[in-house]
Design a protein that fits this description.
It is a single chain. The protein contains 16 helices and 37 strands. The chain is α+β, with helices and mostly antiparallel strands. The protein folds into 5 domains: 217 residues, P-loop containing nucleotide triphosphate hydrolases (Rossmann fold); 111 residues, Translation factors (Elongation Factor Tu (Ef-tu), domain 3); 57 residues, Alpha-Beta Plaits, CATH 3.30.70.870; 114 residues, Ribosomal Protein S5, domain 2 (2-Layer Sandwich); 82 residues, 2-Layer Sandwich (Alpha-Beta Plaits), CATH 3.30.70.240. It has a 7-stranded mixed β-sheet with strand order 2-3-1-4-5-11-6, with helices on both faces. The chain has a 6-stranded antiparallel β-sheet with strand order 18-17-23-14-15-22. Helix 1 crosses helix 9, helix 10 crosses helix 11 and helix 12 packs across helix 13. The chain is elongated and about 115 Å long.
């Protein structure tokens, strides 16, 4: 199979590891940019969003590309913040290898582990770049040990820093057995012989590398064990086999901001990251069925592509990013969106360099591009040739973990807020928007508080809408615990025709979840038939706001069994008011209680903090249902009152150092403990007095 001279890499790792600076250095060294962009001063090509510049952190996956040794390298810079990790996961679906950025100061972080595990799941080759070797406390040997502990004995250094710290400019390359010297900040690098005083140390590391690479190839291992000297080409070939198969994870080092060690990284990407043609056949299904079909990653195959990201702009409209998996594509082509079963006319097609779109005349297997103003295409959809359709497995996104109520600062902006949020949902599948039917609040849900703060910022920056966010109301309900009979009588005489309505009702509690039942037991015409629906209407309307704390009343049976009327003064309105009066008085006499929503929770946390997580859930009135092992973690199942976990996302992050995750869904309603109910009722009363 002919190699496609393209390499597609995602750059992943923890926030603060210097991933974006590393991408900037790669682009600069390859001549794709004319200056070394910096995150600190906002001159970065990859971090161009106003939120990214102000927060100095990557929020969205951004793309760039360069040419190195006659190979095209597509670089995808991913977020390292937990709030935006879903963007990283989507990116890893469409790359062929990963550069894992690790800070020599902070070591392996939680997001590094998450990105690594996702890359492991997708069987992606990984290269580790140990960054920030120019810092005072940079510890190479300690980090290698930590990397081996986290990711296994397949972690092997291909380089050794000679002078870590502020003067870092020299690295020993164990594959070339040369000393590489970098001229701080420039693109120049020179190769020299390894100094005599460092040769023993270099030879020792070289021997370990040879042994590790030989283990990837049976013939080479036999040759090595027989004591024969291995050629450099044999070592490199075996090393490539080990990296591609996920048995060896090479570590190189340097400083992205000082431009030390970046050129060898570009060399490694070209040498050891697979070509798009090297990946296995891409599996999919026939549209409208579950019949499995495949595409070979060849230019000669029918066109197919996966949309992995969407951006919306109030002026330019919607922009879809996609990767081509097979075939070729030209501008002004018509393709089939086989996921939605609609044809899309693609106009201008552009290569992506940060925020800049550069028009291209053609695309082929392995290329990335963007196209604008498509009507029916969303993230996760598949493009394919009309005559040979295929649907790839869609990109899945996790459920939201935190919700806030959202209120426009300007009255009358409600519709504008809803429209703007709909557009933001197109680019962010993890953003959920909806109105709570119980509280009537407009809710936004996302992956964390920072995520939703960014959404609020984008509403203002992109659409000119300002909103406040607040903790949502808990949808409490009211009910009764015993039966009672009560009269509701409305009588008003103020000159002329009066108002008269009189009804007797019996109220009984119903089982949980049964809602409301109305029974008519009037006999003998004591209340005329035309007034009976008015009584029911008065009862139902009064149930919308119960008498103890203003919450909806549920799970009651109301039986209308007696009453009286006046030939002249009775009316539907009078009986409606009488029914409402009876319900409110009856609830207060029937031992009213507050009900609260209980949530089913599944919390995944590392075993070493499981006790802390369980203890915290118990303190929140949670009931632990069971604990099950899940890979390296434990899954805790529990039922917890919603009121206790409105801000659980930040709590779990604190308890688990960001390594925990949870899902929850509504289970049922339960009675609120008396002392808590008293506080809720008092708070409601205090608010009424203030109003």
């Amino acid at each position: 199979m002919d190699e496609i001279k393209t390499r597609n890499v995602g750059v992943c790792g923890n926030g603060g590891a210097g991933k974006t600076s590393l991408c900037e250095a790669m682009l600069y060294d390859a001549g794709a940019t004319d200056r070394l962009g910096k995150v600190d001063d906002g001159s970065s090509v990859m971090d161009y969003d106003p939120d990214e510049i102000s927060r100095q952190t990557t929020i969205n996956t951004s793309l760039g590309y360069c040419s190195w040794n006659k190979y095209k390298i597509n670089i995808l810079d991913t977020p390292g913040n937990a709030n935006f990790f879903t963007d990283t996961e989507a990116t890893l679906r469409v790359v062929d290898g990963v550069v894992v950025g690790v800070s020599a100061l902070d070591g392996v972080g939680v997001q590094t582990e998450k990105a690594w595990n996702k890359a492991e799941e997708l069987a992606l080759p990984r290269i580790i770049f140990l960054n920030k070797m120019d810092q005072e406390r940079a510890d190479f040997a300690g980090n290698i040990d930590a990397l081996k502990k986290s990711f296994g004995q397949g972690v092997f250094p291909l380089q050794i820093p000679v002078n870590p710290g502020p003067d870092c400019n020299s690295i020993i390359d164990l594959t070339k057995m040369k000393l590489l010297k970098f001229d701080g900040g420039s693109v120049s690098v020179s190769e020299e012989e390894i100094p005599a005083e460092l040769s023993d140390m270099a030879n020792e590391h070289r021997e370990k590398l040879i042994e590790a690479s030989a283990e990837s190839n049976d013939k080479l291992l036999e040759k090595y064990l027989e004591g024969a000297e291995l050629k450099d080409t044999e070592i490199k070939e075996s090393l490539k086999e080990g990296i591609m198969s996920g048995r060896i994870f090479p570590v190189i080092c340097g400083s992205a901001t000082k431009n030390v060690g970046v050129q060898p990284l570009l060399d490694l990407i070209v040498e050891y990251i697979p070509s798009p043609a090297d990946i296995a056949e891409i599996k999919g299904t026939t549209p409208g069925s579950k019949e499995e079909i495949t595409r070979k990653p060849l230019e000669s195959e029918p066109f197919s592509a996966l949309i992995f990201k969407t951006i919306t702009d109030p002026y330019a409209g919607k922009l879809n990013f996609f990767r081509v998996y097979s075939g070729k594509l030209s501008p002004d082509s018509t393709v089939l969106n086989s996921t939605q079963n609609v044809k899309e006319r693609l106009g201008q097609i552009s290569a992506i360099m940060g925020k800049n779109l550069n028009p291209v005349t053609s695309l082929t297997t392995g290329d990335f591009a963007a196209v604008s103003k498509l009507k029916s295409t969303n993230t996760g959809d598949t493009f394919s040739d009309e005559k040979s359709p295929i649907v790839f497995e869609p990109i899945t996104f996790p459920d939201s973990v935190i919700s806030f109520a959202i209120v426009p600062k300007t009255k009358g902006d409600e519709e504008k807020v809803s429209t703007s949020l709909s557009k933001l949902k197109e680019e962010d599948p993890t953003l959920k928007v909806g109105r709570d039917p119980e509280t009537n609040e407009l809710m936004i849900s996302g992956m964390g508080q920072v995520h939703l703060e960014v959404i609020v910022g984008r509403l203002k920056e992109k659409f000119g809408v300002e909103v406040d966010i607040k903790t949502p109301k808990v949808p409490y309900k009211e009910t009764i615990k015993k039966s009672t009979k009560i009269q509701g009588k409305y009588k008003k005489q103020s000159g002329g025709r009066g108002q008269y309505g009189d009804c007797w009702i019996e109220m009984q509690p119903l089982p949980k979840g049964k809602g409301f039942e109305f029974v008519d037991k009037i006999v003998g015409g004591v209340i005329p038939k035309q007034y009976i629906p008015a009584v029911e209407k008065g009862v139902v309307e009064s149930m919308l706001s119960g008498p103890i704390a203003g919450h909806p009343v549920v799970d009651i049976k109301v039986t209308l069994f007696d009453g009286s009327f006046h030939n002249v003064d009775s009316s539907e309105m009078a009986f409606k008011i009488a029914g409402s009066m009876a319900l409110k008085k009856g609830i207060l006499e029937a031992t009213p209680i507050l009900l609260e929503p209980i949530m089913n929770m599944e919390v995944v946390a590392p075993e070493e903090v499981m006790g802390d997580v369980i203890g915290d859930l118990n303190s929140r009135r949670g009931k632990i249902l069971g604990v099950d092992p899940m890979n390296k973690n434990q899954e805790i199942k529990a039922k917890v009152p919603m009121a206790e976990i409105l801000s659980y996302s930040s709590i779990l992050t604190s308890l688990t150092a960001g390594r925990g995750a949870f899902t929850m869904e509504f289970s049922h309603y339960e009675e609120v403990p008396a002392h808590i109910a008293e506080a809720i009722i008092k708070e409601k009363g205090d608010k009424k007095e203030e109003e």
